[in-house]
Amino acid sequence: MTVTSRSGGNCRELTCQAGAMTSSSVSTTPELEALAEAVSRRRNFAIISHPDAGKTTLTEKLLLYGGAIQQAGAVKAKGEQRKVTSDWMELEKQRGISITSTVLQFDYSGSTVNLLDTPGHQDFSEDTYRTLAAADNAVMLEDAAKGLEPQTRKLFEVCRMRRIPIFTFINKMDRPGREPLELLDEIEQDLGLACWPVNWPIGSGDRFRGVIDRRSKEVILFQRAERGRASEEKVLSVDEARGSVEEELLEAALEELELLEAAGNELDLELVHAGELSPVFFGSAMTNFGVRPFLDAFLELAQKPTPRSSSAGEIEPVRPGFSGFVFKLQANMDPRHRDRVAFVRVCSGKFEKDMTVQHARTGKAIRLSRPQKLFGQDRAVVEDAYPGDVIGLNNPGMFAIGDTLYLGSKVEYEGIPCFSPEIFAWLRNPNPSAFKSFRKGVNELREEGAVQILYDPDQSKRDPILAAVGQLQLEDDLRQQVKGQRWHGRSRRWEQPGEAGLRERAEAEVLRLYLHCPTYRGPIRAELRRRELDDFAIAHHRQLWAVISSLEEDNLGVGRLEAINRGSEAGAELADLDLPRLLSDQLLLADDPDSGLPSELLGRLTPLLEPSDVQRLSLSNPPLQLRGATAALERQRSMKRARHLLDAWSSQRLETLERCIARLLDDSQAPPAEAAAESLDMETRIEAMFAELNSDALRFQDLYYNERKHIEHLDSQRRASFEDVVAESQDAQPA
After folding, report:
1. How confident is the model at residue 488 (pLDDT cuts 50, 70, 90)?
2. Which residues are CB-contacts of 674 (< 8 A; sequence separation ≥ 6)?
3. Taking the model in full, what pTM does it have?
4. Which CATH architecture has domain 8-305?
5. Strand partners, 373
6. DSSP H or E stretch at residue 531
7. CA–CA distance, 97 with 83 (Å, rounded to integer)
8. 274 pLDDT exceeds 70?
9. Which residues contact 97 (CB under 8 A, 6 or more apart)?
10. Calpha distance 575→112 (Å, rounded)
11. CA 699 → CA 476, 480, 637, distances in Å?
């Protein structure tokens, strides 16, 4: 390790000088001056790490300190804890890992921060690689106990190829871990990346007491904050800290700092921005310690939006005309609408709502009427955006990954590469009558870029082949397919006679509870969202639910209602609405086209608004009724999926057998010399081939048995409801 120290004052002076040079060289008009000012306030970065290093937890705490949220969530939330903002997909909540990159924008200390939370698991690394194409800086997260891990090394190489500055945050210092000097040495030796610690830890594990800020020479004491809340750092001078920290721990930290000053690296912003020197921070994201100092220092040291390579050369951010590129496509961000969103990184100029831009690939002019500011799953219409920002555009099928949008002279940015897949699987359509829907789903997969779609060169084999980077990625797609979110929809193909009537009665029970038990509306919404039952299968129920949601949005706002759906708010205000009366008024005006309710719904919805005496009896115990009705609905859906999976499993096994026979026939026609070289007997060869070709069938088999286990769980819920009712009635009887 080589080191000299440069004061924090020199760093700030350097930053100011760079900003002044940029402003003086390009700001020739008020518009360009305003653009340069907006660019100077932007900071854009992606967080990279190996799985379980604490990346999503750090993201959540950065949002907390940035004022974007009031309480931080937990990756594996328990009880009343809220889920994290960045992991919005249901599968992310279940597995406790990030599956897709998330964009989160917030303002902090006069700067606009665009944070890109990326998946850590290698099976979803393709999404991470593409997201890094939109990042100007990267934060590399390390577990203090594990140090550098395989996926962290891979992501570092991607950052090095793109010359992205890297900031290192060594996490989990409050747990037993390796020595700080050893961690720094590993980074320098294995990655060839010089380090400059911005702060230095005092102790570690259960003796972790805080950090010493290297520039200000102040001691920041470690304090555990209330779960999910921001912590208040206690800042002391070294002399003041001697009475609050064990003498031997403080002296050891000061000695190590002296060693770093004498034999370490010099802080040089040019080297930082070139990706050759990494500022290092120590802390604990879970306990909220060290996050605020990291954020403050990052905004000071990180580089602003940088020029981008294009067909017209280097494009400066302060170029007057707007330009940007699509780096990610995401479908089904809103489960109610099955929408598709294109993520666009703004590279130059000012973006404005309703502007008409040129699409470089097609040459067409496109009006961008509803651009969106992204914050996890939540979105809001954005009026303008500047270089470094990421915006969302509705994608009706016109955008692809790597597309360039521009104004003025033609610009086309460098394409985003595809990565070599390692896992392949056939995708078969078990329902030939739904071919159009199947093809639409395949096209959506191709557009998203999550997996590659290949086809066999043999024209007789036209089933698409899914090609993925990792196994989890393929399993996620397969799960989406069989779940009905891709192409299966509300098809009744896998239903048994009488199930439609049962489903209609169960949905009616849920709606009746919602209308006539107002204090339970918040829990009902949260339960429907948790079980993914808020997209009602019966048409008039679905229409009624849409009208109810519209009335509540008018009174509470879209954001509040969505928070209630997610369970982050109780939703007590929902009880104030007299929904039966409001809906009855709308039914009386059903012939009015603005009412939102077709006139033929009158007869179907009246029993829900005016329940009979027998139906009112079921409302006496809403929790039990809700438990039984939702379990019945979810069981029906699971049975439908199980039948679908069983059929797919059987057909896949038959196809596997056909492939085995075809390969054996091909082998039998091989030259005698090759046939003689085959030492295995026929039975062994068949077993080996079956094991090789049967992987898809085994996957369907596993999914089927998992679904059956879930059905057993739902049955136990329904039985529990019935037993509770019986027990209550027995308790009510006189002795």
Report:
1. very low
2. none
3. 0.57
4. 3-Layer(aba) Sandwich (3.40)
5. 380, 391
6. helix 521-531
7. 12
8. yes
9. 51, 87, 119, 120, 121
10. 38
11. 12, 14, 20
